[in-house]
Structure formats: C-alpha cells, structure tokens
Design brief:
about 575 residues; alpha+beta; 5-stranded mixed sheet; 4-stranded antiparallel sheet; about 15% strand
Amino acid sequence: MSRSLVVRLLGTSVLIVVLSVGAAAWLAAKTATRAVQQEQSHSLAGDSLIHDTLLGYAAEHPRWTGVEPLVRRLAAESGRQITLTTVGGTVIAASDPGVPVPARADAVLDPLGAAIDPRAVGPYRISGRDQARQHARAGKRLRCLRDQGVEATIEETPAGRLVVRLPAGNPRQRANCNFREDEPSAGERAALDQLQTRVTGCLKGHLLTEVSFHTTDFTPIHRDPTNVGNSQAIQDCVDRGRREQLRRYVAEPARLYLTSPARPPVPVFDLSPESTGRIAAVTAFVLVAAVTVTLVVGMWLVRPLRALTAAVDGAASRPAPVRITRNDEIGRLAAAFNALADRSEHSERQRRTMVDDIAHELRSPLTNIRNWLTAGQDGLADLDQDLIRLLLEEAGLLQHIVDDLADLAEADAGTLALNLGEHAVGDLLAQVCDAHRGTGLTVDGDPWAVVDPIRFRQIVGNLLTNAWRHTPADGRVEVRAAIEGDDLVIDVADTGEGITADDLPHVFDRFWRADRARARATGGSGLGLSIARKLAQAHGGDITVISTHGRGSTFTVRLPAPDSPRPRPASP
C-alpha cells in the first residue's frame, strides 16, 4: 500500500510539473500577446490625443501660424513623427522636416467638418463685464439650488460661459431658482442675429418659414408648427449657417500625417541552442525538485500508515491502539482505528461477561439436577413425585434460559420470525393482565395494531413480570394504552423500589440485575427486559424507561400505529 501511495504521489507530482511548465509557456505567450496589444492600444491612444489636440488648436485659432512648437511637443511625448500640410500638400509644420511626407494622410483636421467642434466658438466667446455678469447669475442659481437640496454642478464652456447642470433624474427646480444664466450677452445676441439671417435665407430656399434662437445652444425655436416635420432640413440650415459664420474664426482644413521613427527589430523569442539548453536545464531542475519533494512527503505520509499496518498485523485477536497525533486525514484514520480498537475491547469484555453470566445461570439448575440425581442413585433420596416435580422445575428453568438466549440470537441476527396481523390492543393486554392478577388496565378508545400477538403478549408480560418482581405486596402495577400521533403507546407503571440514576442506563443490558449479589431472591435470568426491547424493535418500535429511586418506574412501549382506523378484528 505504501509503494502504491508513493507511486501515485510521484505520478501526480510529475503530471503537475508538466502541466505547470505548459501553463507557464502558455502564460508567457499570452503575456507577450497582451503586451503587444497594450502597446498598440497605447499607440492608438497617443494618436487620438495628437488628433484631438491639433483639432482643438484649429478650432481656437484662425490660422495655423504658431502650431510648430505644439507639434514638436506632441512628437516628443508620443514618440511619433508628426507632419501637418494644407489640403494642397504644402507643409505647415513638421516635427522632423527631413522625413518625407507619406503618400496617405492619417486624418483631415477640420473643426467645421462633419460635426462642428464645440471649441469653435468664434463670435460667441464672452469676456470682460459680460462674462462677469453671466458668471454671477450662474453662481446665484447654483447656490439657490443647493440651498434647496438639489445637488447641481457648474461647468465652463469653451465660450467662457458657466452652465449649471442638474443631477441625473432632472429633479424639479423651485420657481425662485429660475434665473436665466443662459441669457445671451449683447455680443452673443448680435452673433445670433447674424446666424438667424443666414439660416432664414437657407430656409427660404427650402420653402420653410424662419426660426429664431434665444440661447447660444443653437436650438431653433419654431414659429410655424408645420416646421416640426422638417426638423432635419432646418438642422442642416442651422449647421450650414454656423459653418459660414465660424469659417473666418478657425484655421483652414489640414492633413495630419503620423509615422514612427525607424527602430531596429527586437526578437521576441530567441530559440537558439543556448536558450533551448537553458530551458531544458530549468525544466530538469524543476522535475528533480518535484520528485525529491514528492518522495520526502510520500515517506512522511506512509510512516503512520505503516504503524497502523503493524498494529493490525501484530494483534493476536484484536487491534491494539496506536499513538499518531496528526490533524489530517491520516490522523483521523488513526483516531477511527483507535476507536475501533476500543469498541473491540469493549465488545470482548461484554462477551466475556455474557459467557460468565450464561455459565452462572446454567450452573445453578444443572448443579441442583445433578445433585438430586446423584443422591437418588446413591440411595440418599427417594425419587418420589416431589423430587420429580423439583427436577422438572429446574429443567424448565434451563429451558426458559435457553429459549431466551435463542430469541436474543434470532433478534440480533435479524431472523426473528413474526406472524403479523391486525389485532385489538385491549384484548391482547387483557389476556396478559389476567395472567398477572392485580394489574390495573386502562385502554384509551379502541386501538388496534399490526403485531405478532404471541410476541406482543411476551413484550408486555416481561415488563409486568419485572414490575411485580420489584413492587412490594401493598404496591400496584398499572398498564395504560393509547394512540399518540403516529404511535401506539403502552405504559407499564409500578410503585416499586425504582431504579437509581447510575443503574438506569443498564436496565436493558443482558443478565443485568439491580441485585448486585445476583441472588435468586430477586428471580429471573436478567434477560427479560433485553428480550422485550428486541421484540419491540423487531416490530419497528422501541422501549424507554423513566424511574425515580424509591418511588417506582414506568416502562413505555412505542409501536407504529396504523395509518387509518379499521373494523375491530377478533383476537385469538
């Protein structure tokens, strides 16, 4: 077994190492791939930053003059070569003038292209007193909203205007916070009028009525409800008017070229003989280390197993406990082994005690029979009817003990045959109580049960015999029967001497008597209660006892009750 365990551990370790090496190689490849992807992502992010920065410059300046320092700074930060040219191909600025311009541009920088860049504000930029007044109105509204519990924020637009933003969910603002911080200034109003003139001309060309603008967010206000269905045409006119108005305030469109400086190729993997040798050496080292550790751990694991095996092999009749103190599976196995050894020792003590008890029980009647027969043979006693009756009583006692032992053996082996049938419990109990005169009987209702009538009477009879044996002449014994839930409950209660707390756990032990001297004055073989309990368990029930020393005992039989009531059957 130890070799098998070591071999299994060794095979598991080698498998784990091989999988680990394969996983490490896969992880290295995935890491390299991820690094390349991250590098590409960083490159794309850098290109996007260059594009957005230069587009913002074009939106805020009417000409590209002065952009070259910005181009060189962006090239230094990104490691890219940047070239700006006009649409016609004239170079505006280049981070490295000696690099030829590529044949294909990476992007066209036009703040008024497909979407108007929000940084292109032109005549809508406010400053001076207009900006101060607008900022004051925005700050007043922000404070008003916050005083009323609205978590509003404020931000500045590229035009220099402050805008109050309400939180998500658009909570309703109070009427006294309706300050118009978006009211256009004089300069903005003049620019809006110019825009409206341009838009009106475009709308007339599309046979649409004019619209107006009240704020600088360029949202058209429809004077004619019929315009609503032509919103796209109106928006196209607004965008066209804005582009015409902003053209002289932004730089002309330009082409952007991005290239990478020449770099020597760097090999990602080097599979030269030297590198292959190093990989093989490391792999061999890992394998040797794993095998060594596995052998050490395996020997440490099998040492207690060998101790357990030696304890089993060295035992003549039963295993002897071993001392293994470990808090793992082997430790728990050793604890279970020791518990098994303790149970084996306990069973052996019980076996010896039972053999002694059986010998003691059989010795007395056999001795009496032998002595009387010897006396009759020697002429010392006459074999009259009294002597024969005495010998028959002793033989009957032997037969009773043998029958009790046979019943217990069949119950222990699970071969006890039961002749089950439907019987009235009251009739069966009445028959037993009649045989034990003086016993009181109380039956609640008309219960019935599926039992073996002979074994059922034997259960109650053994309990009654035990009760009367320990009850004085002026005491009483009562039998009560009732259905409680799913159980048939039969109580045998007496007012006898009772059982001490120390003796109570042993009342169902075989050959146990309350009389420690084992005198026959108390009567019985000490098997009656054990047989009664085994018979109750064979019926699917059990027997329990409660007792107070000096005040009596109550033995309770619980058997499964029928699922539904049936007509009262006749008892044999």
